[in-house]
């Protein structure tokens, strides 16, 4: 669309351009396009700028904005002239703008930041959002004029990851750069995102002061419990009870409201009834509290009115620079000796450890903490986020990635706010730190996904988690079983295990379980016998660990009658510590669940640490936990692969096509016509074998002659095409008479004049590649062989977008029927490279166009000569949520949590 055709109302900007954004210090601002009523705010903003900042922006003193300039600054068309304002409360704290140059593909860009907010990353945020808006408006290039002495502004452009050309003349730098995202610019944005989100969580978990709003003298009130727990943990900072009716609570001076507290407040724990939270928020905003932790219930979980109140609350908080945990949260913990924060309703601060735990459910939180303590699992930090109106598990993943105090991450998840982002973050984090997750509600599909979601079989769910490096478990018991190995033992070098014990029956149970998980036994289980001494038992353990064939050890033990079992446990621990073979060990010892004292290696503060041997009530549970660790270690050792975009992609053209098609259907979900399918696939270099739709025998003959014999005729009705017994398909037609007869047969069977005539593709094995939505993982690419048998058995493999080259290669080999593609029984192998190329092109299409809600390429004929798409089906619709692409922004507050 030509730029001169755009006549948009200055108030009517694209609503999706609005965003809450996170700054480098963890605070938030609200970003939106400028509107004419911002004029007064722009004047006030300009008045706060220092002379130096005005000089750098306007190349002169420019003490006030003339009326003519004020109108130009505040009235824009949101296409050729675009401006964003960053708002903190009602105040404008930064402005960025671009203006198209001479109706061409370039625009001049500039921005200015309030002196009090410089150094918070606002310049880079504005540049990202302006570049995204410019791309939507058909611009391809930014130019900027910057004073050479304005080092901070030059750095914003230089460090953005674009290829910037520079010229200098009379002290002014002329900068030019293409705004299409590059690998470097995306990496820069992701790095800044990680740092900002990690910083916001650091602010939450390392407060220097905590206000308890609703602190009570009544032991039955949660305000009493919350204050008591903070004090009992010996919090290293300052605690401020807020209670308008008492001068002190629990012996600590109280304040009528948070605004009356004389010092800064980093964290405000809110423990008042839901209907009073809004008034509390006003005081917290006025005070400049960094984070609001709401343990109060009665919001989204209580119904529509509660949800409305929750959305309003979070919107106000973010707009004023504050993040929110909750509502309906259990709270947050940090066991660091320099913090000792127990801002939860759980009675005790857990033992210090190196495990971070995120939990959505406040109701389960207390039980989780008690279970961790009973099993000897120490924690570094714990967050129960309740309704997750703002702070979510993804924020915690960003924090734990760079937290030196955390080596292991545990998650109890009920849903994903942004599944694509979760997969990206988890995959990156899991390369250095294990991530173990309980995912409940696996089969609950959101209403907006119902039309395009298909149930994924359990083995594929497991494969999808493993693609991201996440160790998935089904229960909290399995979560802790697995966590004990990760927390206390090293990763195994491979899948070879030895079993040592004093009971052949228990040893065989362990062996059977190991084989069921694909673990390899180095030898039959070693049975030292029930009469063996502790020394003999320890000697057998040493021998097993010394073997170069052993990657991990399972110790099974039944206490003998004559000698106390504790003696054997101590002998085992001493043997393991003495040898230090860096091989993981699990045990069934003394019927203890967790880490028995006799098998514990204690830290300075007396809690089990690295080297402790975990124990399980049964050999099956011990081996199950070890098997999960072995699979994770194997994932870590595999090549990570690279995100690959094949050559010849035309994403911009595809987005134009998608936009036009959705606009024609008023944004409703729609099945594309054959011609539109071919157009869209062609943008990604996916060719459909040429075809025509005909309505008479003469047209069928003409089409066959144009396409070239031999041809295939098939019914338009997809139900008939899947039923060769009804003659829904006529193959390998090489003559005019054959085409004419086939057309007449198909018309009679289907009762439809329309028939496909398609050039005959090389013979090959029929495969299917698809796209679908999934509530846990976002967009999935699937692969399998076509046919009723594969469909009946659910023989499909799945990977979540985006795909690496390794993902694409393993996807093709995962179905049980995939050996048919690789030369089963001496057949010539299919061209797997051609199939892999199609998979990567499909993944790129999904990545660029989240409006593609489902797609099926079926059949794809895989032969030694290549892979040929014979039929395709695409459904377009509004994306289920904002994808993990584009400029940095917080999850919209009305998006599903």
Automatic annotation (TrEMBL):
Gene3D superfamilies: 3.40.630.30, ATP-grasp fold, A domain, ATP-grasp fold, B domain, NAD(P)-binding Rossmann-like Domain, Succinyl-CoA synthetase domains
Keyword annotations: ATP-binding, Nucleotide-binding
Domain ATP-grasp: 678-723
GO MF annotation, one: metal ion binding
One Pfam family of this chain: Succ_CoA_lig
PROSITE patterns: ATP_GRASP, GNAT
SMART domains given in the database record: CoA_binding
InterPro entries tied to this protein: Acyl_CoA_acyltransferase (IPR016181), ATP-grasp (IPR011761), ATP_grasp_subdomain_1 (IPR013815), CoA-bd (IPR003781), GNAT_dom (IPR000182), NAD(P)-bd_dom_sf (IPR036291), Succ_CoA_lig_flav_dom (IPR032875), Succinyl-CoA_synth-like (IPR016102)
Region (Disordered): 876-897
Record's keyword annotation contains S-adenosyl-L-methionine: no
Residue ranges annotated for the N-acetyltransferase domain, each copy included: 29-184
Record PANTHER family: COA BINDING DOMAIN CONTAINING PROTEIN (PTHR42793), PEPTIDYL-LYSINE N-ACETYLTRANSFERASE PATZ (PTHR42793:SF1)
Protein name: Acetyl-CoA synthetase
Organism: Amycolatopsis decaplanina DSM 44594
